[in-house]
Amino acid sequence: HSFTGNPVACAVALASLRLFEEERTLEQAQGAIAALSEAMRGIADLPHVANVRQIGLVAAFDLYEDAERRKPFPRELRIGARMYEVGFEEGLILRPLGDTLYFWLPLCATPDDVRDIVARTIRVLHRVLQPASF
């Protein structure tokens, strides 16, 4: 490939790895990871939510019309897309894939950032999934 072994890219990668080590980036992220884990337990208790999962600062959950029976919302409701749109009104950029929502948080996120993002997401869930919205 024409970009294989690019010396500038290699230098940047090495500098990035050095910064990760010096600033203890992964250690610093542990508080945010714990905050996300706690917040995801709260999301798991909400109606219409199932299959909550997390790895580090990446988390996801699925939205269903009937979460217990895993009955999906009718496609024409486009729940994931509505979550995305209403998320903007809450200052969020939510990541839907169909009716699955993802959090892909940066390593610089603080526990307070995580709690704020999840609180806003819960407000969006309530707005989009309230019975009157169907």
- Going by helix content, strand content and strand pairing, the class is alpha+beta
Helicity, as a percent range? 40-55%
> Shape, please?
elongated
With helices defined by DSSP (H or I, 4 residues minimum), what is the helix count?
5
Structure keywords:
alpha+beta; elongated
Overview of the structural elements:
The chain is an alpha+beta fold and 134 residues long. Helices cover 49% and strands 16% of the residues. It contains 5 helices and 4 strands. It has helices spanning 7-22, 25-28, 30-44, 79-89, 111-129, and strands spanning 49-55, 58-63, 95-97, 100-104. Strands 1-2-4-3 form a 4-stranded antiparallel β-sheet, with helices on one face. The longest helix has 19 residues, at 111-129.
Describe the structure in brief:
With 134 residues, the protein is an alpha+beta fold. Helix content is 49%, strand content 16%.
Give the secondary structure arrangement, pairings included.
Elements: H1 7-22, H2 25-28, H3 30-44, E1 49-55, E2 58-63, H4 79-89, E3 95-97, E4 100-104, H5 111-129
Antiparallel strand pairs: 1-2, 2-4, 3-4
Helix pairs in contact: 3-5, 4-5
